[in-house]
Amino acid sequence: MDFENKVAIVTGGAGGIGSALSTALVSEGTNVVVADLQQSRVDAVVAGLESTHPGKSIAAAADVSAEADIKRLIDLAESTYGPVDFYFANAGVGDGAGIGEDNQIWESALEVNVMAHVRAARLLVPAWLERGAGYFVSTASAAGLLTQIGSAAYSTTKHAAVGFSEWLSVTYGDRGIQVSCLCPMGVNTDMLNGGLEAGDEDGEGLGARVVESAGTILEPEVVAGAVLDTMRAGRFLVLPHEEVLEFYRRKGSDYDRWLGGMRRLQARVAGA
């Protein structure tokens, strides 16, 4: 995998995993469009990148729940740097608790955590098929492979994000389109710490608490490094917390036992 002079779009790029991905890509020589809801926040990220790698990044405000905004990001990347090689569907929301009595919580989670990925792929895949190359990276969560204690909307939509990434790989993997899906547990981001508003998050948060007690809280830079390493290796799952794979195996080997264990974990968390 060659990152030099390639063109990437990173959503949820104003902080956390998105900012770390942007920094890692620029350091590899990639041209990056850094996108998030608030222009001032992505401007700050790009100002830092420009100080060390001038001309390699550009900031853009965008709401990834709007297809027109995603198209605008693609147009900006193409007019500034050339055809898009990598798309990092990293923006995410983690609002809500329990079953989610407010439909708006579900609608927001579906739009940002799932449909934003679908819309981006819909816009990018035809050109990638013509070129015979393209790379789609989805930020999901360990909650998308396991589940989570807390928000039903987060857990359900992260499962859907993993499922859509799988579908992309199965459908287009033999036609030049590569896909990776990031599924970490706890990452030291504003979302994990409850510091951002809906739509401004960058990948991890409430979903990390499914198995947070069993894993180390990683820094975003470590996670970004794992993403690039996985892309170089051409693998699908990005698992910065290696224990997630073992949890996933246990789930698949004895679903009822695993569910019972999760109920016991939920009881311990509730008691704490």
Automatic annotation (TrEMBL):
Alphabetized UniProt keyword annotations: Oxidoreductase
**KW Plastid (keyword) present:** no
Which terms does the record give in the GO molecular function aspect? oxidoreductase activity
The organism is Antricoccus suffuscus
Would you tell me the protein name for this molecule?
NAD(P)-dependent dehydrogenase (Short-subunit alcohol dehydrogenase family)
Keyword Oxidoreductase in annotation: yes
Recorded family membership: Belongs to the short-chain dehydrogenases/reductases (SDR) family.
Q: Which Pfam families match?
A: adh_short
